[in-house]
Amino acid sequence: MEKLNLSEVIRACHGSFGYPADTEISDISTDTRTIGKNSLFIALKGERFDGHDFAAKAMELGAAAVVTERNVEGAKCLIVDSTAQALLDIAGYYRDKFDIPVVGVTGSVGKTTTKDMIALVVSQKYNTLKTQGNFNNEIGMPKTLFGLDNSHTAAVIEMGMSHKGEISRMSMCCKPDVCVITNIGVSHIENLGSQENILKAKMEILDGAKYDAPLVLCRDDKLLAKAEIYSDRKVYYYSVSKKDCDVYAAGIKTSDNGIDFTINYKGGKIPARINCLGEHNVKNALAAFCVGLALNISPEDIVKGIGLFKPEGMRQNVRAENGVTYIMDCYNAAPDSMKASLSVLAQTQCKGKRYCVLGDMLELGKNAAKYHRTVGEYVPSTKADELLCFGENSAYYIEGAKDKGFAPENAKHFETREALADYLKDKISEGDAVLFKGSRGMKLEEVFDLITKKEA
Fold first, then answer.
1. Quick one: CA torsion of 347, 264, 223, 206, rounded to 10 degrees?
2. Distance, CA of 341 to CA of 338 (rounded, Å)
3. Alpha helices (H) along 270-366
4. What is the pLDDT of residues 154-193, one digit of tens each?
5. Which residues share a beta bridge with 218?
6. What is the pLDDT of residues 280-313, one digit of tens each?
7. Of 342, 341, 351, which is closest to residue 320 (Cα–Cα)?
8. Do residues 172 and 190 make contact, with C-beta atoms less than 8 angstroms apart?
9. Alpha carbons 415 and 389: distance in angstroms, whole number
10. What is the pTM for the complete model shown?
11. Which of 355, 372, 370 is nearest to 435 (CA)?
12. Are strands 102-106 and 77-79 parallel, antiparallel or unpaired?
């Protein structure tokens, strides 16, 4: 972060400060564990905490001031109406100091992978800052912007949401020059009521963008394909099947835990490869290609960047342990991402058996049973030898799979992770492939840990 004068901060968040304001701010924090000399501490309030309780402590640790909604004894308080909005306002002011292209990315599923691919593409031409980890909400996104410094010449910012208005506020803060929406699923549908409302919430990414900022959309998504764009902005449509799009894929072939394909665009075509499986990842690569075109990056450099991508952490991360291939995808789950991961299991080269380990999809509201059953119906087409389920709603996966002809004796439900791990430990052998997929709250990675710990 480049230094800010406290007087600038006061103007940015429209706050009241009764002390001299000529101090330079070295960094901005919402956590006293990261406070240093001349930090600015912002006292956020949550369901289980109140940053105001730590304001005096922040001063003791060296903070120059604290942003609060009320006076706190022992602290130099910059008082605002809302500390959450102040965080966004200050970050927006700071972002304006950098005349660089900013790419905003959102979508129901796949936005993190797409963001990472886009960042690799943009990095072929620019020194690029990108959202790290899951810093994609109204707290994490401003923190990402504070990571900008004078060495950066571009940024790729991910935006997630669970309620209406969140992406609008983030977009107004980061002011994207290129906007990307990957798809419209059913994640958080219990909060938003319908996919149409989810579409409206995702389209809020345009709220902070210029009227002519390019928009990148997937025409394979039925809602995005019909989305009405009320401006003269350039819309880049991409697809894995529709040849009338600006960018589309052809000749898709899976080999050696990767996919080779040809990217067709208005100016010609070019071969490309991604080092991961799943048609959804081809779509992610096409989105990145569109962003590259929007930023005038050469097609050759674009595909070079795409080819550098490798899944990490708990997002379709493929790893081998004792001759067994494990596909770890335990970060989040929704019907579309579940089907995407199941397709990866089907495409994984495997000399033995395929085990499909599924946990509940959370936050799906009153139609959770239907969504789980629909995912289960997809299982028989994935070459899975056994379907192993954990979680209250996961029994509906089994119902759906059986309805489509999956052998009942090969589908099992487990009450505990320990029981599931014990079963897998006895069954798996060298040459097998095991997919772990479920919402983050299901903690299926703990099953993997139990298995590999026992094998050690």
1. 120
2. 5
3. 279-294, 299-307, 335-347
4. 999 999 999 999 999 999 999 999 999 999 988 878 889 8
5. 238
6. 999 999 999 999 999 999 999 999 999 999 877 5
7. 351
8. no
9. 9
10. 0.85
11. 355
12. unpaired
